[in-house]
């Protein structure tokens, strides 16, 4: 369902406060959907981009750009091919509105991509891809990750003050949800790592008749010998169920 922007000049449209109540209800619905999906980062991002297209006036396409630890660039949860292609272009050029939104911590509006002069290489190529106007919001910031919510329209001047206001609200809710989803994934990964290490130690304890401390020492020795993380050695032991033959410490 698309939330229409009320026209204050026409008596046919409901009062502004009715629109605001309706919008508030839609954002609450978004929050409920995000809470349902928060254990899965990918699902959370998809809820956000779908809601952005539904709720933000002018938005025809949406996607999320993430820059993770090590400055790895990821294009996530795109509602069509256009956001992915524009992301790929910005990644190649290391320049563009979403990158500016991420690094400068600001909202960036491009009214007319054909006439945009801030990014002389990016803008004409983005217009050729089909982006007539772009609106990018800084999505969230953590110690290791940066992100932006990117909206695209095929026509110029598609976004207005209402688009920015609603988009800012959605981006705020999205930031909280993304951080929660990441923490949930990290927690689950930590539990999985602990379980995997426990299984691997148990296998070594049984095979070599050693205690838990000596079994972990064997894992560390294998890690050093193979130049791989302890977790990766443990995973291989569990997957194969045939541990390599280390020298007994």
Automatic annotation (TrEMBL):
UniProt-listed Gene3D superfamilies: 3.30.450.40, Winged helix-like DNA-binding domain superfamily/Winged helix DNA-binding domain
Q: Which GO terms describe its molecular function?
A: kinase activity; RNA binding
Q: Where are the transmembrane segments?
A: none
Pfam family, any one: GAF_2
ANTAR domain location is 177-238
**InterPro entries from the UniProt entry:** ANTAR, CheY-like_superfamily, GAF, GAF-like_dom_sf, GAF_ANTAR, WH-like_DNA-bd_sf
Q: Which SUPFAM superfamilies match?
A: CheY-like (SSF52172), GAF domain-like (SSF55781)
Q: Which UniProt keywords apply?
A: Kinase, Transcription, Transcription regulation, Transferase
Its recorded name reads: RNA binding sensor regulator
Q: Which organism is it from?
A: Rhodococcus ruber BKS 20-38
